[in-house]
Specification:
By secondary structure, the chain is mostly helical. It is 65% helix and 0% strand. It is built from ten helices and no strands.
Length: 207
C-alpha cells in the first residue's frame, strides 16, 4: 500500500516580512527619479490648493463681475474671467476641492460596497453568485447621468443628516452618495475574480 505524501503548505503568517533594505532601495530609487519628484510636488500642490481653497481663493467662485467679463489674465484676475465675469482661478480652486471630496467620499463608498459584494459573491458561489452578478450587470447597464438626475430629484436632503453633521453640504453629499452607489460594480467584479482564484489555493484549502 502506497504511503500518502504530505505536501508542505506555507501559511501567510509564515511568509517572511519585506526586509528594510528592500524598502530603503525602493525609496532611494524613487527619490533619485527627478520626474517622480516633480510629479509628487505637483500632486502635493494640487491637494494643498484644494484643501485650502476657501482661504487662498481671491474671490467667491460664483461672484459675478459684470464689468470684467472675459478679462485676460493679469494681477487682478490671475487666469482671467469667464463670460459671466467670474474669476477662473477661484473656480479652479473650488473645483479641485470638490474633486478631492469625490475621491475621498464617493470612492470610499463605492470601494466598500464593491469589496463586500465581491467577497460574498466569490466565496459563496452558486445561486448567490448568480444573483449578485445579475445585479452587477444591471448596475453596469444603468446610465450614470440619468441615475444621478433621478437620484437628486427623489432624495430629500433632510435625510442626509449624517453628512451634514460632518460639515458636508447636503447637495454635495447626495451626489457623492449617488456616485458611490453606482460605481461599485467594477470593484465587485474584480474582487470576485480574486476570491475565486485565491479560494482554490493550497493555503486556503488547508485552513
Amino acid at each position: 500500500m502506497a504511503k500518502k505524501t504530505r505536501t508542505n503548505v506555507v501559511k501567510l503568517s509564515d511568509a517572511p516580512p519585506v526586509p528594510r533594505w528592500y524598502q530603503g532601495r525602493v525609496a532611494h530609487a524613487f527619490f533619485r527619479n527627478k520626474v517622480a519628484i516633480v510629479g509628487l510636488i505637483i500632486i502635493f500642490l494640487i491637494v494643498f490648493a484644494a484643501l485650502t481653497a476657501p482661504y487662498i481663493s481671491p474671490y467667491d467662485p460664483n461672484e459675478i463681475h459684470a464689468a470684467d467679463r472675459l478679462a485676460p489674465p493679469g494681477t487682478t484676475y490671475f487666469l482671467g474671467t469667464d463670460e459671466f465675469g467670474r474669476d477662473i482661478f477661484s473656480r479652479l480652486l473650488y473645483g479641485a476641492s470638490i474633486s478631492i471630496q469625490i475621491a475621498l467620499i464617493a470612492q470610499s463608498i463605492s470601494i466598500s460596497i464593491g469589496v463586500v459584494v465581491g467577497l460574498v459573491s466569490g466565496w459563496y458561489g452558486g445561486w448567490i453568485d448568480d444573483l449578485i452578478m445579475r445585479i452587477t450587470d444591471a448596475i453596469f447597464a444603468l446610465p450614470g447621468l440619468i441615475f444621478l438626475i433621478v437620484w437628486v430629484q427623489i432624495i430629500d436632503e433632510d435625510q442626509l443628516t449624517f453628512f451634514t453633521a460632518l460639515g458636508i453640504d447636503a447637495k454635495k453629499a447626495s451626489i457623492f452618495l449617488a456616485l458611490g452607489l453606482i460605481g461599485w460594480a467594477g470593484t465587485a467584479r474584480m474582487m470576485r475574480s480574486q476570491v475565486l482564484s485565491l479560494k482554490e489555493q493550497e493555503f486556503v484549502l488547508s485552513a
